[in-house]
Amino acid sequence: MKRSERLVGMTNFFLENPRKLFSLPYFVKTYDAAKSSISEDIDIIDDMFRKMGIGHLDTVSGASGGVYYTPDYSEKNSNEAIEEMISILEDEKRVLPGGYVYMSDLLGDPKYVRLIGKIFASAFQDVPIDYIVTVATKGIPLAYAVAEVLNVPVVIIRRDPKVTEGSTVSINYVSGSSRKIQTMVLAKRSIQEGSNVLIVDDFMKAGGTIQGMTSLMQEFNVTVSGIGVLAEAEDEDEDRKIEDYVSLLKFVEVDERTKHIQVKKGNYFNSK
């Protein structure tokens, strides 16, 4: 196999298997190449990943060592993606009755969902994560996008129990927007005790729903390693229940009368 062919194959392999360790002999056997050639290929791919701002290859020495791909979306790439989403969301046609903003098309566009997944994965790349947790329904595509980059499974909390999921654990929580008592449930076999989870959601106002998810995770004896929200509302009443989180966007103003929407960057860059 030519080096150019091997580089294409190995690059695709690393992108498809992030955060998973593979030994050098594995690549030697797979591509029928000398160990020295494989090592040179890894250096070339690592250099290109860094130049593109999409991550890097890390090597582990020793008998049980090898190489693995760490996704890391650069600050430049993240800034460009967030700026593009801001320009889309500030369209006055997105204002809905009640002062809401239409975002479903953004959450349904694979391009932006993938970008959001890469940015969140970069924000939490150094945090131990065994599961991505979200609540049905709008946070589901974001959770899967982050999970794909971090190479971990998704756990979906539901409002109502499903007979196909077996016995469940349920809690009541106060919704941050409606101030109503609501219920969320999760199958007992969904998460292993002692795991680390990353909570992902599409929008946060007061944080009641995320607080509910956090409380539910306590029932499973797991650790919430991080919280990521795509967009948050400006905290005007200082009644936010969640303090430690990462947001990509912040809605500063949504005026139903004038149809004016002002969006700015969230606290993501503050955490970098």
List keywords for this structure.
alpha/beta; Pur operon repressor; 6-stranded mixed β-sheet; transcription; Rossmann fold; PurR_Bsub; 272 residues; two-stranded antiparallel ribbon; DNA-binding; single chain
Structural overview:
The protein has 272 residues and is of the alpha/beta class. It folds into two domains: 3-71, Orthogonal Bundle (Arc Repressor Mutant, subunit A), CATH 1.10.10.10; 75-270, Rossmann fold (3-Layer(aba) Sandwich). The protein contains eight helices and twelve strands. A six-stranded mixed sheet has the order 6-5-9-10-11-12, sandwiched between helices. Strands 1-2 form a two-stranded antiparallel sheet. It has a two-stranded antiparallel ribbon with strand order 3-4. The longest helix has 18 residues, at 35-52. The chain is globular, with a radius of gyration of 21 Å. The model has no long low-confidence stretch (mean pLDDT 93).
